[in-house]
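for the recovery benchmark. tokens below, seq after
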């Protein structure tokens, strides 16, 4: 039997997240201060006070969710279990938690990632959407027909798609015709995990080349392979790969079962990954970190 810490991605944010920890816990306060220093910006003020429109900008929300997640981990004093994993940007948080990246370098990488993703696709030309009620194979067939990309295979009957706005809209229409219970755009400022993010992938390859990543203290279960990963070069390649390819979260959780992982602890704002786990398998007990 083994355990895993998992870290959320974009969409988990809310104004005020982490404020109480900042006010009451020195270890958490140090994380937020380090992120502010690394970015040369009072990101903590945006996290705590908003406005939500500024917090949800991709370049802000990615380091903001990471900062809040690591602050929660440090405040808890919890020791790492046998594995870590993260959903999308949560992979960077997981690597930081496992000591492969410093807090400052993680913040700088996520700021670069957010800017690169925003700049890769002109505002309004891309779209990310969720399809509920159709299995992954059906959604893949629809995407093959329309030219859309599967961005997140989250859990049975919940798939996120992404790409050029007109293509995603066509995909949603076809999904509804095929019996989807819901098919609607998500409130993201960029299309994520899709081929039109290739310019962002190239930028992240350069950014990662200039950052010192060390071997994580525990294996990362990768969004790319769904398997444990410790090799630094493989990790860098996987972080670039995930910009243009989908997050295989459902498969990752199923492979956690194969690795005899029985306990999952979600660390960060929200409880999205805890909810997804319960829809994927009953062989893993998922819970939120208690501080």
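predicted aa per position
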């Amino acid at each position: 039997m083994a355990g895993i810490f998992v870290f959320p991605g974009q969409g988990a944010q809310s104004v005020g997240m982490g404020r109480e920890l900042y006010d009451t816990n020195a270890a958490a306060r140090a994380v937020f201060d380090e992120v502010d220093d690394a970015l040369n910006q009072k990101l903590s003020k945006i996290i705590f006070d908003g406005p939500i429109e500024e917090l949800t900008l991709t370049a802000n929300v990615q380091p903001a969710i990471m900062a809040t997640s690591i602050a929660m981990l440090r405040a808890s004093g919890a020791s790492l279990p046998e594995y870590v994993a993260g959903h999308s940007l949560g992979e960077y948080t997981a690597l930081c938690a496992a000591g492969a990246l410093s807090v400052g370098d993680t913040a700088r990488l996520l700021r670069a990632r957010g800017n690169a993703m925003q700049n890769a696709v002109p505002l309004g030309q891309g779209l990310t959407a969720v399809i509920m009620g159709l299995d992954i194979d059906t959604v893949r067939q629809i995407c093959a027909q329309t030219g859309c990309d599967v961005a997140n295979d989250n859990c049975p009957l919940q798939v996120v798609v992404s790409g050029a706005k007109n293509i995603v809209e066509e995909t949603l229409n076809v999904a509804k015709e095929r019996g989807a219970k819901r098919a609607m755009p998500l409130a993201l400022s960029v299309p994520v995990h899709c081929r039109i993010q290739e310019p962002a992938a190239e930028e992240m390859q350069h950014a990662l080349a200039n950052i010192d990543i060390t071997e994580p203290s525990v294996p990362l279960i990768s969004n790319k392979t769904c398997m444990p990963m410790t090799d630094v070069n493989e990790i860098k390649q996987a972080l670039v790969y995930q910009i243009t390819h989908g997050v295989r979260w459902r498969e990752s959780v199923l492979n956690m079962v194969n690795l005899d992982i029985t306990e999952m602890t979600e660390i960060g704002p929200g409880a999205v990954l805890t909810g997804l786990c319960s829809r994927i398998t009953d062989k893993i007990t998922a819970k939120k970190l208690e501080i």
